Amino acid sequence: MLTKSPTAEHTFYIIDFDSTFTKVEALDVLGEISLIGRPDRDDVLDQIKAITDRGMSGEISFTESLDLRLNLLKAHRDHLPALIETLMGKISDSFQRNKQFLSENADHIYIVSNGFKEFIVPIVTSLGVRAENVFANTFVYDETGAIVGFDAENPLSANGGKSQVIRNLNLDGEVYVIGDGYTDYEIRASGLANRFYAFTENVLRPRVVEKADHVAPSLDEFLYHNHLNRSQSYPKSRIKVLLLENVHPVALQLFEQEGFNVEIRKGALDEDELIEAIRDVSILGIRSKTTVTRRVLEHANKLMSIGAFCIGTNQIDLTACTERGIAVFNAPYSNTRSVVELAIGEIIMLIRNIVPKSNSMHKGVWDKSAKNSFEVRGKKLGLVGYGNIGTQLSVVAEALGMEVYFYDAVDKLALGNARKCKTLDELLAIADIISLHTDGRKENKNLISYREFALMKNGVIFLNLSRGHIVDIPALVDAIERGKVAGAGVDVFPQEPKTNNEEFINALRNLPNVILTPHIGGSTEEAQENIGNFVPGKLLEYINNGSTYGSVNFPELQLPLLKNSHRLLHIHANVPGILAKMNNIFAKYHINIHGQYLKTNEQIGYVITDVAKEYADEVVEELKGIDQTIKFRLLY
Ligand SMILES: NC(=O)c1ccc[n+]([C@@H]2O[C@H](COP(=O)([O-])OP(=O)(O)OC[C@H]3O[C@@H](n4cnc5c(N)ncnc54)[C@H](O)[C@@H]3O)[C@@H](O)[C@H]2O)c1
């Protein structure tokens, strides 16, 4: 652990059990076990919950609510082992993570609960809490072992019991209470505690939160707030994630599962709105309509990473992000398969001449003939660009019996039986069907124009599902009108409407055997879900582990999982000598380095150093102080 041992010899921690130490209310779980096989089980469980609520709201006394619940439970001593086993699996995640804190401070930790010792003691002692520091009720059994009541002498079976127990403990020092219920707050209200932390990891009760000195979404937050030893360098609940533009709900779920504080907004934000929203955000998720400018980034004081839930990242000022040490990730192949399937579908529709036939049918014309309708089997498919999409299409097309040829600007491995063409001209001359899958770099403007159409076979089928400016539209219109191109599928255009309300204006409208689609090659539910999974995966790897594999602006490093070390992540301007300066600091403090990784790009250097856990806080300060440091982060 990095920070020094707990501040106060004289601080005592009073911790609640149900819904705090564990995720659940133990008596509810006991009911689920003891009522197994009863036809009215669900009804009785509902009644038990309702009584719990009536007790909590003060409608009935706590003693009465306990009495009523035990009567309904019909529980037996024999049910307790199963209850304890279930509760063992329901210990709150942040307690599980921080068992070192619990065992190291066992002298100062008390569990004070209106639950029962019979199940509380085995659970809390498993994480190092002392049995003698557990204050709770005890069951009363009849001669058969059935649970028939509770020890009514115990103050915890009545209202105000917790305060009475704490008073009797006569603790000499600061007292902090952590709990989710009103009875926990009452300890503070009666002047017996210095602070009350509303624990909201499992349940959030507004009435309790309102009264709290501090809200602790996890035990990590409590420990962080008090500068105590903890398992996370920075509580995840403090990491704010802002997701814009309706990204897939799976992304929200993934970030929430991780314990982050997530805010979602449906639409895009303009520059001023984003400046306002981004101030305390650590992770920003956008799609293509939010522009992240240098001005926005100047206000993004906490921003560590941006996830583009799409393919393109033109909407983000990547240079400014890199200068500020903000890693950007996107989803380069989450929709590859969707584009490929649309291309295959269109190829079949076009080569069968289905579009004019379907249009005629809608006008009542029955034109049954095989003329100008062909199979795809045995036809030569020419792929221009053999990247993610080109290669995938190559594989699927071969499965349909097509002969695949490809041309790529760089040397690429041919998959399956695909054949490489040495030049674009060679490919254009050989193919029956030509499909474009190059990237959208500027030099590809009008890659296919009059000259290229002239090189193609007569009656070729032509597809562009890549980028609009790659095809010279007047040249394509001319080729279609002359019959050079027998069918075309076009999904992308040099000028595309910005919204669904804008008219689509293009010379390709109303030509025969032409399928026009509004840039939806990659737009499927599956692709959205893939993106929703993929981008958070990358962001979480970066936040939790430091890995930048797949980043569009950071030097890419795939790091091993962190084990028994602390990981120091240092991002700096790429100038000579930084690594040496870092290692001088490690040497000066005799730090044992377990592993070190360095990668640079033109703008920045990224150094990860895994070190033994014991070292002085000054090391961190000195590392942060190295000239040209952009960002420094610590993981453990
Ligand atoms: N219609 C849609 O909705 C949609 C969806 C996803 C991707 N796309 C577009 O599809 C295209 C391909 O995507 P990808 O993921 O396969 O990209 P990629 O970067 O994996 O592959 C592009 C390939 O094109 C090659 N290339 C570039 N210029 C070339 C040229 N002049 N001649 C020959 N080869 C050239 C590159 O070397 C690379 O291998 C991109 O333009 C992308 O923007 C469109």
From TrEMBL:
Gene designation per UniProt: serA
UniProt organism field: Spirosoma soli
Function: Catalyzes the reversible oxidation of 3-phospho-D-glycerate to 3-phosphonooxypyruvate, the first step of the phosphorylated L-serine biosynthesis pathway. Also catalyzes the reversible oxidation of 2-hydroxyglutarate to 2-oxoglutarate.
Protein family membership: Belongs to the D-isomer specific 2-hydroxyacid dehydrogenase family.
Statement: the UniProt record of this protein carries the keyword NAD: yes
Catalytic activity: (R)-2-hydroxyglutarate + NAD(+) = 2-oxoglutarate + NADH + H(+); (2R)-3-phosphoglycerate + NAD(+) = 3-phosphooxypyruvate + NADH + H(+)
GO MF entries: phosphoglycerate dehydrogenase activity
Protein name: D-3-phosphoglycerate dehydrogenase
Enzyme Commission number, as recorded: 1.1.1.399, 1.1.1.95
Pfam family, one: HAD
Superkingdom of the source species: Bacteria
PROSITE patterns recorded: ACT, D_2_HYDROXYACID_DH_3
